[in-house]
Amino acid sequence: MVTDSTIDPVDSKPDPQAWKKIVVKYQTPSLGRSTWQIVNTLGPTAILWALMYWCLSVSYWLTVPLIVLQAGFMVRTFIIFHDCGHGSFFRSRRANDTWGYITGVLTFAPYYLWRWEHAIHHASSGDLDRRGTGDMWTMTVQEYLEASRWRRFAYRLARNPFIVFVVAPVVLFLIVHRIPSKKSSRRERNSVHWTNLGILVVALGMSAIFGWKAYLILQVAVIAVASSAGVWLFYVQHQFEGVYWERGENWDYATAALQGSSFYKLPKILQWFSGNIGFHHIHHLSPSIPNYHLEKAHKSEPLFQTVKPVTFFGSFKSFTFRLWDEQRRKLVGYGHLRALRRQQRAQLNR
Questions:
Q1: pLDDT per residue as tens digits for the range 2-59
Q2: CA proximity to 223, closest of 135, 109, 102, 85
Q3: Long-range Cβ contacts of 245-253 (<8 Å, 24+ apart)
């Protein structure tokens, strides 16, 4: 058992031999638990589709709470997709790839392309010199001050909460994920085409059952709510007070995991729907741990308990973060820029 004195994630880099010995205990998937998670996620999803369709003919207002509930199950389905992408949901690679494709179709995400981009995110999270793939656009204060007026406008637009949490998620899952990336390999590009074909087949089948108008209304509404919630989770996991960012030569993988990924302490019901992804510090330290082992790892190991939690209500402070201040080593808002300008003017007037 590792004690707090053995590894201090704040004052020193975690010892690789120590943390690797810890995480290996939780990396073995359970066929029973994985199967049950599929059943208790996709089963209610099918039932809710029938209920939403029935309620749609009775009252739109009656349908809204079911849409929100269905969105919660879509987020949970995405966590299965996510774990399959890491090869952590099943021992079998074929099983991971098969269920990754199926859940990818259900969540409108191309499996191999997403897996490739997400692997880059895990390998570079918190590294200021490797930003740009699978992450949230984050500029440093100096980069922003030196940027052109157009680039500043584009950045402010991209970081606007309405764009980030309402517009961008829908565009990402309905449009961007339908287009192959030129940077990716043939397999990743083909995964987009196969996912698009799968989505089309499902859409035609659902339209035959419920009618294309009802299917379209319900599917778009569910994706809008689920993708917004998913982007918020991703945002809070890497944009929070005390987050770790470092230049490449000083960047450390384990420190980036424990300090650059949040422990988002959610209410139990939200923790269930989000598949324990709030234990993101553990997930980034070892993506090979299945989501259903994350809470046990956190409760059993003092190393993980040293990480300060981000509470549900406390996470809303993340709305104010816009730029990374390399001098102060913290995320700041645009108000910090006004303070800098006042200081510069005061110095010029001396």
A1: 343 334 444 457 776 788 899 999 999 999 999 999 999 999 999 999 999 999 988 8
A2: 109
A3: 245/126, 245/127, 245/128, 245/138, 245/324, 245/329, 246/126, 246/127, 246/128, 247/127, 247/128, 247/129, 248/127, 248/128, 248/129, 248/130, 251/126, 251/127, 251/128, 251/129, 252/13
CA dihedral 302, 304, 305, 310 (to 10 degrees): 180
CB 252 within 8 A of CB 246: yes
- The residue type of 341 is R
Amino acid, res. 132: G
Q: Which run of H or E residues covers position 263?
A: strand 263-265
246 pairs with which residues across the strands?
127
Please give the Cα distance from 134 to 46 (Å, whole number).
30
Q: How many CB atoms lie within 10 A of CB 247?
A: 11
Beta strands 309-311 and 323-325 are unpaired
Report helix, strand or coil for 325. Answer: strand
Q: Express each pLDDT in 125-184 by its tens digit.
A: 999 999 888 889 999 999 999 999 999 999 999 999 999 999 999 999 999 999 998 888
Helix (H) or strand (E) holding 139: strand 139-140
Tell me the whole-structure pTM to 2 decimals: 0.90
Is the Cβ–Cβ distance between 83 and 291 less than 8 Å? yes
Q: How far apart are CA 244 and CA 284, in angstroms?
A: 13
- What distance in Å separates the CA atoms of residue 109 and residue 103, rounded to the nearest whole number? 8
Among 299, 268, 298, CA closest to 281: 298
Digit-coded pLDDT (tens) for 67-81 = 999 999 999 999 999
Q: Do 90 and 31 contact (CB within 8 A), yes or no?
A: yes
331 phi/psi in degrees, rounded to 5 = -80, 140
Cβ-count burial 54-67 (b if 16+ within 10 Å, e if not): ebbeeeeeebeebb
- The CA-based angle 130-81-263, given to 5 degrees, is 60
Intra-chain end-to-end CA distance of the chain, in Å: 59
